C-alpha cells in the first residue's frame, strides 16, 4: 500500500471514528454509531482484508493480517452477541468493544505507516548506492562522439566524461584533469585530484574537468557493476538471527492461535460446568487480546531491517558487506590477519633514505629516468631532472645501471657492481633495497628504496590492540623486510616468505585453536586465504577480481581503518538485532500474561503492546544505519616504509 493511500485510509477512519465514539459514549444511539464504527473499520481494514485473502490463497494463514482481522471482527461479534440490545447496546458506552475493534485497525494502520516510513529511510542509503549505475556513456569513435549503452563500450575505447557526469567504466585518464568525487564507491568524503595517467573507477563523478578516459575493463566487470551485483546478492544471504526469526514465526503464530482458542473455550466451559455463570464473553475477549498482542511483526520486520540497515551503514564506512551472515563472524573475530603488499603498504616504491648530496642525487635520478623498472621510477621521481642531459644508459641485468649524465659517469646498483667498476664502498646495513651510487669512479653514497606503508596502517593496528584483537601479518616477502614492517606498524606476530598454500595453513592453525580470524588481502594469491578465513576482506580499490570474489566484504577505500570500523559496526548491528528479539518477546509475554490474569483487559492496550513494540523495534533497528568512524580516519600518522 502506498504511503498516500495509507494516510487517506487513516484519515477517513479517524474522521468517522470520532463521531461514532461521541454517538456511542454520549447518546448511546445504536442505529448511528454501529454503521459509523463499521464504515470506519472497513476504511482501515480494507487493505488488511485483501492481504489476508491473498496470503490464505497462497497457503499462508497465520500472519499478522489474519490475526488483526480475527481480533477486530471478533470484537464486533462479541459486542453484538453478548450484549443486551435494550439495556446495553442502546445505553451510553454500549459499543465499547466495537470501539476497541476499530481502534485495533486504526492503530495497526498508523503503525504500518511509521513502519513504511522507517523502511523507506533505511532503503535510502542503498538506493543512493544503486543510483551510481550510469545509464549511458559518450564514446569517441571515428573522430565523433556517440552516446551508447555502457555495455556496448569495448575495452580500450575512449569515453568522454563532462563535469557533473558519472564515469561509466573503469579506465585510465588519457587527457584532461580535474577533481573526482568517488564517495559513492570508496566512502571518501573529499574529491581527489586526477590527471593524465590516473586510474578512475566507474560510478565516480567528474566534479570540474572534461576527461577522456581509456577503458580498461568491460562494463560488467567495472567497479560500479560489481558493487551493484554484490548488493543484489547480499539480500539472499541471511544472518542466523534472520533465519531463526523466519522459522520461529512459522511455529509461534499457530501456537499462539491454539493458546487463544484454549483460553476462549476451556475457562468459560469450566465456569459454566461448575455453576459459576456465563463467562464466555469475558474469556473470548481475553483470547482476542492474546491474538492481537501475539503478532510477530515486531520480530519479522525489525530484525531483517536491522541487517538491511547494517549493510547500508557499512557502505557509509567504505566497506561493502556481501550479506547479513557476515556480521556475526566479523563481530566475534579475535585475530585480524593481513597480507603486506597493497594491504599494509601502498604497493609502490619510494625513496626513504638518501646519503648523497643534492647535486649527486639529481645525477642519480637523471640516470634512473632512462629506465622503467619500479625501483628506477621511484629514484627518478625523487628529484626534478628535466634540465639534465643523459645518454649511454645501460641496464646490467640483476646488478644495476650505468649512464652518462652531463658528462659524468654514473653507476647505480648492488655493491658488487660498483666493485666491478673499481669503486670502493662501505657496507650499508638496511632491511630495505639499498642502491650504491658511484660517480666518476668515486663512491657518492646510497639510496634506500622501499614500499611505503599506508598512513592509515599504524592507526588501524593501534585500534586493534585497544580492542584486544591480535594482529598477524602473512607475507611472501623476505624475513628481514617482514620483521622491519611488523616492528614499524606494531604487529603482534608475522610470518614471512610464505607461499599461498602456507598462508591458508596458518589461518587454519589459528582457527583450530578456537579463534575467529579476519583476513585482509588484495592479490590473486590471497584469494584462497580470503575464502578460508571466517571473514575475508578484500582491499577493493587495488584488489584483484579473484580476491574480491572470494571475500565476504570489500574495502573500497583500501584503508585498514575501515575494517576496524566495520568490526565495531558489526558488533553494534548484532546487539541491536538481539535487543529487538529479546525485548519484543519479553514485552509481548508480559502483556499476554496480563491479558489472561486481569479482568476486563482493554483490547486497545493489546494493540499498543503489538504496534507499540513493533514501532520501538523498528526505530531501534534504524540505528543500524548510523555509523561512527571509531578509528580516527582523518589523523595523519607518519608513514613508515619497507621493500617488497
Number of helices: 21
The portion of residues forming beta strands comes to: 15-25%
Low-confidence stretches: 633-644
E-strand count: 23
- Helical content, roughly? 40-55%
Largest sheet: 7 strands, mixed
Mean pLDDT: 81
Structural class: alpha+beta
The end-to-end distance, rounded to whole angstroms, is 59 Å
**Shape summary:** elongated
Going across the biggest sheet, name each strand in turn: 10-22-21-20-11-18-19
Query: Compute the gyration radius: what is it?
Result: 35 Å
What does this molecule look like?
By secondary structure, the chain is an alpha+beta fold. α15 packs parallel to α20 (560-597) and α20 (560-597) packs antiparallel against α21 (603-621). The longest helix has 38 residues, at 560-597. The radius of gyration is 35 Å and the shape is elongated. Mean pLDDT is 81; it is low at 633-644.
